[in-house]
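Sequence in, structure out. Go.
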Amino acid sequence: MKNIKYNPIEEKTLNDKLVNLYGSKLPGLYSAVKPLFDNPNVVKPALPLLLELNDDKSYENADLRVMVFGRETNNWNDEENRLQFPFCTYNFDIATSDDIVAEIKGKHVDGEADYWGLGDIYHNYCYEETGVRKTIFTRRQNQLVQQLRERLGNRSVEAMWNNISKIGCCGARFGKSCRRPTAEIREIERQYFNVVADEVKILKPDVILFLTGFYADNDIKEKFGLADKAFQSVKDGLFFDRISIPGVRYAARTIHPSRQSKENLKLHFDALVDDIANTIRCPN
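Output:
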């Protein structure tokens, strides 16, 4: 599989650029994870998290483009639309460049998905309002973005979700509870799917917010090639640092919003929104 030659599609949109980024990586990634599925004694990886914009033009034309990072995506499988694949995850029968594109974009006939791609899974979770159960992280991430929109008044804000670890574990239903990716999964991602910095180059967010808590700083430094001094504390008593990332107007890391009291969440979100508004000189 890793010897499949990927033929890039024509890049008319930002989504096309993302497809070509992922398409160049999937053959090597799928070859690397296959032995984990052949070994009954190891934790299986979930699908890689592939981003998809809901509307390229709205994102490109927004006054402020925001990318919000969580830590890892466990249980990122599709038990309804990918039942034919191991653990509802990887299609190991990919043989051609067209197969790679279909794995990313899906196959659609008259508006319906005959075959769900990885982008379909992301799109359904992020952009569909009915029939999708959002995690507490997503609900609170959306709360933060809405708070930022209200603070910035008539400025348009477009936001999208990402994870600093792009491949999580299959999760509890498949014999392992949600957790930090195993060493094997992390090393495979490091070698074959190290795409976070490239995603940022393509999408050019003005603001990057790492809602990653206490355990992901080294991952952030590794993915963006940052030194310790890139992190600067903003306010005493809060777990909240600005991060200097080349080409990004504003970046910061703060608490992971799950399992936080409403009071602590409000304290950190208020400080974060104030700092964004003041730093990028947006009006109240």
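Check: The chain is about 40% helix and 15% strand. Strands lie at 45-48, 64-70, 107-109, 112-115, 157-163, 167-169, 207-210, 231-233, 241-243, 250-253.
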